Amino acid sequence: MPRVNDATLPWPGHWTPLGATYGPESTNFALWAPNAERVDVCLFDDDGAETQHTLINKTFDVWHGRLPGLRPGTRYGFRLHGPWDPANGQRFNPAKLLLDPYARAVDGDLVAHPAAFGHLRASMDAGGDHTVRDDRDSAPYVPKSVIVDNAPFDWRGDAAPRVPWARTVLYEAHVRGFTMRHPDVPEQLRGTYAGLAHPAVVEHLTSLGVTTVELMPVHQYVSEPDLQHRGLVNYWGYNSLAFFAPHGGYSSSGTRGEQVTEFKSMVRALHEAGLEVILDVVYNHTAEQGDGGPTLSYRGIANDAYYHLDPDDPARYSDYTGTGNTFHVAHPSVLGMVMDSLRYWVGEMHVDGFRFDLASALARSMHDVDMLGSFMTVIQQDPVLREVKLIAEPWDVGPGGYQVGEFPHLWTEWNDRYRNTVRDHWRGQAGGVHDLAYRLSGSSDLYADDGRRPYASINFVTAHDGFTMRDLVSYDAKHNEANGEDNHDGSDDNRSWNHGVEGLAGDDDPGVFELRQRQIRNFMTTLLLSTGVPMITAGDEMGRTQHGNNNAYCLDDETTWLDWSLRERFPQLLEFVRGLLQLRAEHPVVRQRRFFEGEPLVDGGRKDIAWFAPSGAEMADDDWRDASRQTLGMFLNGDGIRSRDAWGRPITDDSFLLWLHSGAEPAQVTLPAGVWPGRYEVVLDTADELGGNVEPGAGTTLTLAPRSSLLLRALD
């Protein structure tokens, strides 16, 4: 049984800051729990022995007290006493050890034992009754908070790279999977923050030419009990538990606070290389799942505040996320915690921005999505957060949750309409080129009407969720059997094409292999020459595959770990992507900060952007309405760009003509004459059929290979 320390009551302490604040004399504990009747701080020795101290002071709904003699690395948790009344949203249960919502570090993991549930759960198969309290002690089976030293970290003059949005190239990566198979990273550092900061890894990122690493979730998370009982894990990490703590499983140095220092060292190393760090954050739900899930923290502290409860049955949860619960960010204290977390990661951990998972759920006031609601308003006025990069995944699974194009000015958005349009074009099923033109030029139909800029559109063809780019051209259907869900999980709307043979076996056919590689080059060319902010999924630049699994969230193995030997197998692809990224970095005409107007830059001159039919004539209304059209020319005029540099000077650049042809047969295209350039040079040809010394002139007819892209640079 736990030992209750009656000899010395905690010193009064203070109600702020929340969490455990270490000092050389004592550690202050503060926990917001408005309806609790008693709060115990539980300290754990290295051997697991527990000592409890009852907090006797309460200010503004915060229980607080100071305990002397504690050291950094001490593990602790809370036990809360109060009503067990699920029908009215109350789920207090002192038998359940609860994680501190403000914990800076977490030690241990969730063990899927029935005692980890606040309610009666007779067996994992039978389910049990979520309204009957379970009084078994959960402490042996749940993770524990850790007291962290507040000593200053040596940032060595670290400064945020502050890459402008128009220059940003995002690179989505998983901390563990990115380095688990890297041959130049020492084995003990693979899969860790230190591994990601290794010089060999940093060199790959910088030589590739990306500017910003977007890390999949690094907040402390746990695997769902049902996954554990199937012998699987939550590999992606979209099951957050502690919003201030870097995930201990990614630390090579320890989990008693060492993970905090290691994370900071990683950020410092990436910043020194000029790379930004953005975190994929999951504030829309927590790892406690629905009414049948484990009790780990928030549910046992203030269940009716932290979660959206079903108004007709408060024993159950409103689920706009597909995970069983929705975090109630509209509640003032919950919103305050989320803001504290965001500011902590910027101020203390030096990250450069956030990508918000299922961001529409955060914008829900009570039930409806409200872009003028509290979460959006607080972000808008916050002097710290409004200065960092903010990316929304602009949807959730609830009614009215699809909000692409609707987020406020400071926000950028994952543009799934870009993804779908580009995939459909290159598989020859786009139904014309009308939508393609919008996506190539920054999606003004989505973002221009409310004064936003082209970089509001985060352009992507692939992401962690779905096929890799190589699988996109190798599989017609998902192959998720390893997930243990009979291939029912994952999207069926992949808009993929296997080019005649299902799976990687098709690469043994030289014709199929060449066409697949060409299509990858087409995707990369389209992505990196489109106006907006491109996002590359880690490994796509070297032909990464998940063997057709489009939902590998539960696989922590070679399916999801990046195979670095692909650099030797597909060196041409890697160099092709590097070349495209270098071209993008050097030419502002392909990364405009303002939307095109389709009008001449000067009287009688060339338009800032022009669209051409294969005949060499500008696209007419009938051309745009032609659903059979598969070829489009885009001219980008560099003579004068509709924005100026930091000193107010005009920006000029080269002009380019890009042809995109998705048809199965060759296409004849004529280079426009008249006011348009008289001569061009070939910059790239994804079919590699036009020689580099070719300088075609206005009026020249060129043959585009089937399913190919051609980029020309104007010479006059």
From TrEMBL:
Signal peptide: none annotated. The keyword Lipid metabolism does not apply. The keyword Lipid metabolism does not apply. Keywords: Glycosidase, Hydrolase. It comes from the Bacteria. Residues 172-584 form the Glycosyl hydrolase family 13 catalytic domain. GO terms for biological process: glycogen catabolic process. GO terms for molecular function: amylo-alpha-1,6-glucosidase activity. Belongs to the glycosyl hydrolase 13 family. NCBIfam families: glgX_debranch (TIGR02100). This is Glycogen operon protein.
